[in-house]
UniProtKB/TrEMBL annotation:
Gene3D superfamilies: Galactose-binding domain-like (2.60.120.260), Glycosidases (3.20.20.80), Immunoglobulins (2.60.40.10). Residues 1-19 form the signal peptide. This is Beta-glucuronidase. NCBIfam families: PRK10150.1. Residues 79-198 form the Glycosyl hydrolases family 2 sugar binding domain.
Length: 631
């Protein structure tokens, strides 16, 4: 174990650029109170002062669970389709022992605009959904007695917000929110709320950069300490079992982890998702001032015009787009659902998903780190249009906040800067050039993509990206019913992208809506059979493309059915999921499972599950080794 004097200037600049947003973790120096639970709630501004008496939902019930979206909790359209502000209020107790500490409040996410008031004093405003924010509230608290927090949440989206929308008064009366994106505009306090303490001096941020030198992991770090005068930092790296493998000191440096265990994606190695712990101990003489631990993985990424590798091995992505979406809770943090989802992700043999179309909860990202699931981390910019300087500034801010939260995660292998933006508009070229330049200022280790629905010959963004992301619904939105045209059209589209830009290509979306249990022979649109027929034609195209290392993966849309706004195309929501909204498999899930496991077996020698094929008869060939030939 030894430290070198190497200092990464970029990490130091990043640490100085903005405050940290480290996850809330209790320690010897940090106390934590969780404010989740039932909060008073109203949609009526007239009841804000006496919210406990509000009855604007008409049931004599003015409580709202946190975390959760509010839209589906009640029984009326008034709340589900509400446009504008709502108010949450919570009473809480702060012990007297906290009076000598700095006290902070942290929200995992509020969608979308949040104004937070503590005991009548405004303390923070935040305008990006799906991302955390925090502020110190020490001077506004009463100790050893009751306090309250009031949060105004506004869900209005306009041409300058990320994502965009517009509001209109239909017939001069009720406000209606209109959006271009194809998922329900859930709102509310949808992730956990914490109070926590620090000392006057504390660890504000940690930056970690990884490189490999043979079997040695080079961990270059920098820390940001508030009020660091007279303090000393000890840095420890611990392995998965808590054993010390490297030590250092000071606010920056490089530590060497010999014989490093690498972070590998699921099914690429028998022990995926290996995590180390980066530990910072802050002391004044012998007095402990702060103590913080953050898990990280040792892995390398490399990309050029022809390849995309992890730990010097080619990546082939098997995955899907997803949504944070469930019955009743909407986009609210749902721990049982999260665990169920990751059981299904492993069952189906996927190794990656895109956080379509916004950053997902930290609890979800933690699981991805631990399980070896690769993440394409997407900023909440969807169907971006009406390009302007104000929108560009907000877009950069949203990405910066996402980066600040997720920069040290080994699971994050790629940044997605938008989904289906209107890149046929000439102004989009310079717009996304500037977004890419902004991202590269902070991070050059991960490639940049966006999910593009247009053809390569009519758009302006591709030349600025590292990896081309392609959304195409052949035989569904385009040429519906023409399954026999999928293979030639998809091959032509993808090779066109490649020939024009000479960059790796990733298929980010394809699929068809399927109504669970709807069945016909021969197949017909919306049936289980049609869904299977369609995706297997895509498989044929992908197999002809993936002989080239520049074709780096396939991602079906979507992992599970999800709610949308009211639309004649949507029967209870978007039904392109491999699983239903309550996470039961459709017929296509079993087909994709065979595909993904077969790919993992062929490419990485993964052991196939015994239940992949059902017994038919003693004359039917169940030899799993045939998968290599079939592909």
């Amino acid at each position: 174990m030894r430290a070198t004097s190497c200092i990464t200037i970029l990490l130091l600049l990043l640490a100085l650029a903005r405050g940290g947003i480290l996850p809330v973790k209790p320690s010897e120096t940090r106390d934590v109170i969780n404010l989740d639970g039932l909060w008073y709630f109203t949609t009526d501004a007239n009841f804000v002062e006496n919210i406990e008496e509000a009855d604007d939902l008409g049931q004599g019930l003015n409580l709202m669970p946190v975390p959760s979206s509010y839209n589906d909790i009640a029984t009326s359209l008034i709340l589900r389709d509400h446009v504008g502000s709502v108010w949450y209020k919570k009473y809480f107790f702060v012990p007297g022992s906290w009076s000598s500490k700095r006290v902070w409040i942290r929200f995992g996410s509020v969608c979308y605009n949040a104004s937070v008031i503590i005991n009548g004093a405004s303390v923070v405003n935040h305008s990006v959904g799906h991302l955390p924010f925090a502020t110190e509230i020490s001077r506004h608290l009463n100790y050893d007695i009751e306090n309250n927090v009031l949060v105004e949440v506004n869900n209005i989206l306009d041409r300058y917000t990320i994502p965009q929308g517009y509001v209109d008064q239909v017939g001069g009366g009720k406000l209606h929110q209109f959006v271009k994106f194809d998922f329900f505009n859930y709102a509310g306090i949808d992730r956990p709320v914490y109070l926590y303490t620090t000392n006057d001096a504390y660890i504000d941020d940690i930056n970690i950069d990884i490189k490999l030198n043979g079997t040695t992991g080079l961990v270059t770090y920098s820390t940001e300490i508030v009020n660091p005068k007279g303090l000393k930092q000890q840095i420890n790296i611990l392995d998965k079992n808590g054993h010390l493998v490297a030590v250092g000191s000071g606010k920056s440096g490089t530590l060497e982890v010999e014989n490093a265990k690498l972070w590998w994606p699921y099914l690429m190695r028998p022990d995926p998702g290996y995590l180390y712990t980066f530990e910072v101990i802050l002391k004044q003489n012998d007095t402990l001032i702060d103590h913080y631990k953050q898990r990280f993985g040792i892995r390398s990424l490399y990309y050029d015009n022809d390849t995309f590798t992890i730990n010097n091995e080619n990546i082939y992505i098997r995955g899907f787009g997803r949504h944070e979406d469930s019955d009743i809770r909407g986009k609210g943090l749902d721990l049982p659902l999260i665990i169920r989802d990751h059981h299904l992700i492993k069952w189906i043999g996927a190794n990656c998903y895109r956080t379509s179309h916004y950053p997902y909860a930290e609890e979800i990202m933690d699981l991805a780190d631990e399980l070896g699931i690769m993440i394409i981390d997407e900023v909440p910019s969807v169907v971006t249009a009406n390009f302007s300087k104000t929108l560009l500034s907000n877009h950069k801010q949203a990405w910066s906040e996402m980066y600040q939260r997720d920069k040290n995660r080994p699971s994050v292998i790629m940044w997605s800067i938008a989904n289906e933006p209107r890149v046929t508009i000439p102004a989009s070229g310079d717009y996304f050039k500037q977004v890419v330049q902004h991202v590269k200022t902070f991070d050059t280790s991960r490639p940049i993509t966006l999910a593009n629905m247009y053809s390569y010959d009519i758009e302006y963004s591709g030349k600025y990206l590292d990896i081309i992301g392609v959304n195409r619904y052949e035989a569904w939105y385009v040429n519906p019913g023409q399954i026999d045209g999928i293979v030639p059209r998809i091959k032509s589209l993808i090779t066109g992208w490649r020939n024009l830009h000479n960059k790796p290509v990733l298929f980010t979306e394809y699929g068809a809506d399927v109504e669970e249990g709807l069945s016909t022979l021969p197949s017909f649109i919306w049936t289980e059979e049609y869904g299977n027929d369609l995706i297997t034609e895509y498989f044929k195209a992908f197999d002809q493309l993936r002989s080239q290392p520049w074709f780096v993966g396939e991602m079906i849309w979507n992992f599970a059915d999800f709610k949308t706004d009211t639309d004649i195309r949507r029967v209870g929501g978007n039904k392109k999921g491999l699983f239903t909204r309550n996470r039961q498999p459709k017929a296509a899930a079993f087909v994709v499972r065979k595909r993904y496991w077969a790919l993992a077996h062929q490419l990485y020698n993964a052991t196939l599950p015994k239940d992949l094929e059902l017994y038919i008869s003693d004359s039917y060939n169940h030899n799993n080794n045939n998968y290599k030939d079939e592909l």
